[in-house]
Write a structure and sequence with these properties.
Blueprint: E1 4-8, H1 14-25, E2 37-39, E3 44-47, E4 51-56, E5 59-69, H2 79-88, H3 90-96, E6 97-107, E7 112-117, E8 126-130, E9 133-137, H4 140-143, H5 155-164, E10 178-179, E11 184-189, E12 192-197, H6 211-230, E13 235-238, H7 243-256, E14 261-267, H8 275-285, E15 288-294, H9 296-309, H10 319-331, E16 336-338, H11 343-347, H12 351-363, H13 367-380, H14 388-400, H15 413-417, H16 419-422, H17 425-429, H18 435-445, H19 452-480, E17 483-485, H20 491-498, H21 502-505, E18 506-507, E19 510-511, H22 513-518, H23 525-528, H24 539-545, H25 547-560, H26 568-581, H27 583-603
Parallel strand pairs: 13-14, 13-16, 14-15, 16-17
Antiparallel strand pairs: 1-3, 1-9, 2-3, 4-5, 5-6, 6-7, 7-11, 8-9, 8-10, 11-12, 18-19
Helix pairs in contact: 2-3, 6-7, 7-8, 9-27, 10-19, 12-14, 18-19, 24-25, 24-27, 25-27, 26-27
């Protein structure tokens, strides 16, 4: 990977600073083998490969990613940044930046520092304040190498991981480490820190722009966003055959003046392969298309490296096909991959949006009728369990009665098993089992949107996108040796989507209503009307068919049971009964626990 790290507030001589800087920088060396750039002084900072650095008048800027001042063309820090920092301050600098970035500023003369990440939280940035020393890093493994911030596993982080299959910010796997939230910054002054939110998604739900005007504006923003994302090297695009990736592939052909390089992953497993849609999109737009079929052996081979590449436990299995897709592109000389992430969260593309809208209708039924008539009738109807329609009605009422956003976790695996069945008592004693839903509710409540769809979109920008999908794609691409870029997350595209009405995102049960209308003459109709799938991994199915994968899963979970995290009885039941009962559903939990154990082996065991 790459990134930045450093500290301020602890005096050391130059030699000691350099030695510590080198130790912290080791996890940021990068897959390209470049040596990190080290700046060592009373306040030290280290930049990994691919980071822009600028130092003037005692101020150091370290930029991971790409950012520029609004109205400016330069994507590297320069004199204008120093002038803004010294003249208007930390918050003004953040508000003036646009792009995808993580930024650290150290002002030795003033005893100040700034940590910031962009509006989408595209790049991770962690910190820990110990006494009056602020230590920061793009990686938890770099942060823990400072002597003032030793790592201690946080039981809450472990619990949150199994609940979400990743650990949402601002928490992490280690106690006391904190991660910046999207659109936020941390300002350090003389041993004290203040957190600020300088950007938050806001919706204009009353816009009434005529459709032809909106369509033309949307298409122009798309073209501009793709151009901005291309960069200076050879570019390729993920192509799953869905609406987002197909749209970007088509726009890339249009703006580049040549066939786009597109890359797709397939699986030889019933119900998982969507290569036909990727081929359809490629033929439609005339891309130079490349395919690879991931095998069970590929999965076995990459698991340890994948666990090492992610500094936090990460259980999204689609990181594996994303890696093999990016590796295929890297072999062709591609240096940057374009991904369609963000389209669902901006334009209303997830099936759960329509499902939750249906559940919300129940809340409009008068409470007296719901609680006095409907629910008692369903709950006490003789033989209701034997009537399919009544069972469905009970399930609908049960889910609809759960308030948002907890209703989104109705099918959560950990909730279905029960925390006491999964975790050892010692771990549960150190974790608050209600915190995941509390944090969901806190994020959900921050949105000022009046509509259900926009409140869900705002939540997903944080939980689904910043905490899950962006780390997945960036991590997989970094492991393959390429960069990742996301045109749908440009500031202009995000601003455009915020002006669409709720109905233009979800019209009854029609997802992406405006998006599909605006691209009806651009995308193949088969892709506009296809069901969403993506690069899912048939792990549960393959685990039962391929001995190497089954052995790795079994050995990993048996090793995990000795760590005092998950109960041995649950592991036996999961492997011996649940997976055979429903490989796809319960196989997800096997993967989550497998990757947790692999993370332990790569980051915690003494030999590593």
């Amino acid at each position: 990977m790459s990134g930045i790290c450093g500290w301020i507030g602890q005096g050391r001589d130059v030699g000691a600073n350099r030695e510590l800087a080198q130790a912290m920088a080791a996890p940021l060396a990068g897959v390209d083998g470049q040596a990190p750039h080290i700046m060592a002084g009373a306040a030290s900072a280290i930049a990994g490969a691919g980071v822009q650095c600028y130092e003037a008048d005692g101020v150091r800027f370290m930029l991971w990613g790409e950012a520029r001042l609004r109205g400016g063309a330069d994507t590297i820090p320069g004199p204008a940044w120093t002038e803004l920092w010294r003249g208007q301050g930390a918050l003004a600098l953040c508000e003036a930046l646009t792009g995808a970035f993580a930024l650290a500023v150290i002002d030795e003369r003033a005893g100040e520092a700034l940590l910031a990440t962009d509006h989408m939280g595209s790049f991770p940035l962690l910190y820990q304040l110990q006494g009056e020393t602020l230590v920061f890093a793009s990686s938890a493994q770099a942060l823990r190498r400072h002597p003032l911030t030793p790592a201690e596993i946080d039981p809450q982080g472990l619990y949150n991981y199994v609940f979400f299959h990743m650990i949402p910010a601002p928490g992490g796997i280690y106690r006391h480490q904190r991660r910046l939230l999207p659109g936020s910054c941390l300002h350090y002054r003389q041993g004290r820190v203040e957190s600020h939110t300088y950007w938050r998604m806001r919706f204009d739900e009353r816009a009434d722009t005529p459709f032809p005007q909106l369509k033309e504006e949307f298409r122009q923003v798309l073209r501009d966003s793709v151009r901005e994302s291309v960069g200076g090297g050879k570019v390729g695009a993920f192509l799953s055959g869905g609406t987002d990736s197909s749209t970007l592939a088509g726009i890339l052909c249009e703006t580049g003046g040549a066939p786009a390089q597109t890359y797709s992953i397939g699986f030889s497993a019933d119900g998982y392969d969507e290569m036909s849609y990727a081929r359809l999109a490629s033929r439609h737009f005339g891309t130079d298309h490349h395919e690879y079929y991931v095998t069970a052996d590929d999965v076995v081979d990459i698991i340890p490296r994948m666990a090492k590449a992610f500094d936090q436990p990460f259980g999204n299995a689609s990181a594996v096909p994303a890696y093999y897709c990016a590796r295929m592109a890297a072999a062709d000389g591609v240096t940057r991959m374009i991904g369609g992430d963000g389209g669902d969260e901006l334009f209303g593309g997830n099936e759960r949006y329509a499902r939750q809208q249906v559940f919300a209708l129940y809340q409009k039924v008068p409470a007296l009728l719901r609680e006095g008539l409907l629910e008692p009738a369903l709950n006490h109807f003789p033989g209701a369990d034997r009537v399919a329609l009544l069972r469905k009605a009970r399930s609908y009422v049960a889910q609809a009665s759960v308030p948002m956003p907890a209703r989104l976790e109705t099918y959560n695996l950990l909730n279905r098993y029960g925390a006491a069945e999964v975790f050892e008592p010692g771990l549960l004693a150190g974790a608050n089992t209600g915190r995941p839903l509390d944090e969901l509710a806190a994020s959900y409540g921050q949105s000022e949107a009046g509509s259900l769809i926009n409140r869900m979109l705002a939540l997903d920008l944080k939980i689904t996108l910043a905490d899950n999908d962006l780390p997945k794609v960036r991590g997989a691409c970094a492991l393959a040796g390429v960069e990742a870029a996301f045109p749908f997350l440009s500031e202009s595209m995000v601003a455009f989507s915020s002006r669409l009405t709720p109905r233009q995102k979800l019209n009854g049960s029609q997802l992406r209503y405006f998006f599909k209308q605006a691209l009806g003459d651009f995308l193949p109709p088969e892709i506009i009307h296809k069901e969403k799938h993506g690069f899912g991994l048939p792990f549960g199915v393959w685990m039962q068919q391929y001995p190497r994968l089954n052995e790795l899963a079994g050995d990993s979970l048996q090793s995990l049971r000795r760590r005092g995290v998950v109960r041995g009885e649950f592991i036996d039941k999961l492997l011996g009964h649940h997976v055979r009962e429903h490989a796809g559903y319960h196989g997800t939990m096997v993967w989550v626990l497998l990757m947790l154990e692999q993370w332990y082996q790569q980051h915690q065991d003494p030999r590593n």
